[in-house]
Amino acid sequence: MKNLVILGAGTAGTMMANHLVKKLPRKEWKLTIVDQYKTHYYQPGFLFLPFDIYSTKQVKKNGKKFIPKGVDYIQKKIERIVPETNKVLLEQGDELAYDILIIATGTKIAPDEIEGMNGPMWYKNIFDFYTYEGAKALRDKLREWKGGKLVVHITEMPIKCPVAPLEFAFLADSYFKNKGMRDQVDITFVTPLGGAFTKPKATKALHYLLEEKGIKEVTDFNIERVDYENNKIIDYADTEVEYDLLVTVPTNMGDAVIERSGMGDDLNFVPTNKGSLQTTDYENIFAIGDATNLPASKAGSVAHFEAEILTDNILRYIQGQPLKEEFDGHANCFIETGNGKALLIDFNYTHEPVEGTFPFPGVGPLQLLKESRTNHMGKMAFRWVYWNLLIKGVHIPFVSATMNEKGKHFEEVTQ
Amino acid sequence: MRKLIAHTEVEVNEEGYLTDFSQWTKEVGECIADENGICLTDRHWEVIEYIHEKYSCEEPLSIRGIKKSGVIDIKEFYKLFPGGPLKKATMIAGIPKPKSCI
Ligand SMILES: Cc1cc2nc3c(=O)[nH]c(=O)nc-3n(C[C@H](O)[C@H](O)[C@H](O)COP(=O)(O)OP(=O)(O)OC[C@H]3O[C@@H](n4cnc5c(N)ncnc54)[C@H](O)[C@@H]3O)c2cc1C
What we know:
Chain A has 415 residues and is of the alpha/beta class.
């Protein structure tokens, strides 16, 4: 009997368990998945929780429910991976041997990376919304906040779901309008990048949204510290931005288990072949989702595309065939723009998001890079798709793992 | 686009970054620095050397990487290349503007 072990039962790990249980002969392969928590969170919902659009119940479920029969589920913290002996050490001294290992431990926020961020004002007037706890604390704060300077801030790239902070700013605009207090709130978006959107083409096409919503923008801001006593963030060029309420996306890092195992880069992301998803250092270890160092978006949709390719490659690896280097960085994501509208973008390693239709060339119904109500419905439907199709590894109809170039108006990314 | 820098014709993109690193010379670097109002000192060259090293191993550049480089701290990096230090330093070093991974 051989062992395939999946580390992390989040979006990517759960999908892999569901894919592989159907593909690997049960007599030969034992499948095990490990996660420290009982709860599986719907992280895209953390964007809506602060604005009371989703309830806490809508963003969490018992994780075990999504692990298929035939897969062993172990709820324990992973202490260390020992690639030299093909073992994983769990808390309380348990050990798991593997023939093939899949790392899907994701990324999480590291507010300690910036001086003054995770200090006495954390969850008082400095919040994140990338965790369940943060999003919920922020919801409670927003319910009673009387207005002032709201600063929405990105600490450093890469972060998961890179458009989420901007969506947060758009939704905040709607939220305060609906509460009849928009005139008492000043919204500023602060980013280390040269523009509000992470891709230059999108920045050009979508800048009007910021103007339309009266959101100020501070770009090229590399934060050095939070001066929580005087409510200011300060960057290395000594630029200061004042806030009454700071909503920040702290540095995103891979889990500490990657560092403990000596397998990560500066940010604890696992060096991974960007086409095949095999780790660069160990041929029987693969990585998927937010845990990798791929220059692709860290998003559930990306993990979904990766999962189809990784499943193929695991089978090829077992049969001793060469791996396919097929993953092209395909990502698509809805961008909530407030007032019941959303945009959709679709791109990969080499193509920037542009206009067109999705998923059917020339037909849609979803419009790329244009605000519409249908797109908003798409974003809302994504929660259903997530719980019912995505993490169960069901192929989403008409959407392929690599990007379809028909019906889209492309320009290659230039260096 | 072609551009005459330091008496040599080089290929640059619309933002002024060299598109072919093999066309870079120290003189080209000095001229680009000059256009950006920067006069290159030994310290600058140490940083440019570090950037070239990273570029040749295809390691992406980032502010965090600079912090850990052991060559320079970020405060000084900002002083040497005022404005956007990574953007300016890479332009002078003749390599593409760092892409922020999305
Ligand atoms: C606010 C927000 C909005 C988002 N919006 C979207 C969106 O609209 N569309 C989209 O596609 N994506 C979105 N995402 C991103 C998406 O949620 C993630 O990219 C996706 O969940 C990544 O899956 P993953 O399996 O790689 O990591 P995760 O789902 O984070 O799973 C990692 C798992 O590993 C476990 N783990 C880690 N370390 C250990 C350890 N040492 N021991 C035991 N267990 C461990 C964790 O407990 C966790 O369950 C959003 C994310 C956020 C935060």
